[in-house]
Description:
8 helices, globular, binds magnesium ion
Amino acid sequence: MTTIFITSSGTDIGKTYVSALLIRQLRARGLPVRAIKPIVSGLDEATFAASDPAALLAALGEPVEFENAEDLSRWRFTAALSPDMAAAREGTEIDFTELVNHCKARISLHDPLLIEGVGGLMVPLDATHTVLDWMSELNGPDFAPLLVVGSYLGTISHTLTTLDVMQKNDLAPRAIIVSESLASPVPLAETVDTIARFAHDTRVIALPRNGTPDLAALI
Ligand SMILES: Nc1ncnc2c1ncn2[C@@H]1O[C@H](COP(=O)(O)OP(=O)(O)OP(=O)(O)O)[C@@H](O)[C@H]1O
Ligand SMILES: [Mg+2]
């Protein structure tokens, strides 16, 4: 039961772009992929078409309708804040055990299952847990983390810091995908080469703007 977990060094980097691309590629290979983005903040019916659940539904070939986001994104918040803060604005909090059980139940039902994380690796989900804790709870032999990073100036330190934390927590990514940032003064290829030099055995893949590298081969 392969679980692909898409995480990142930060928010707005390219997790959803990569998730949608990978979903389409797996479907093109005839694989019955299911995807969830259990926690989404900044979700509003008026702007639903531009949301992460909408992008994932479209990639899955399912109707892009607000109601269909309910199962795909069990925890939905209006405020575009970190999950703990967005939940607090609505007088609630994410039950971490329930989140883990929710994912495990879907892992047992779908092969492969793609999970898009939220924000960056160390974003808080509640008062005491981060995305890293969430990934650690789901980790196992068929758990395949993918690390999506940007190509902006400063990404190398953010990327290597995230990679180091993942490796030290037994969550070595199957690949680092460098999604080309808008208006970066640094050429994508040079950033990829530099990250690869320091990432040693970890595969590093360049994803140009609107690019379609073969990600399905990683699974
Ligand atoms: N390689 C790329 N080519 C074209 N557009 C991209 C690429 N990477 C990211 N984008 C665009 O940049 C924006 C931010 O990317 P995306 O939504 O995938 O980030 P994210 O990491 O999922 O953010 P969040 O933390 O909010 O979930 C989106 O409009 C997305 O389509
Ligand atoms: Mg996203």
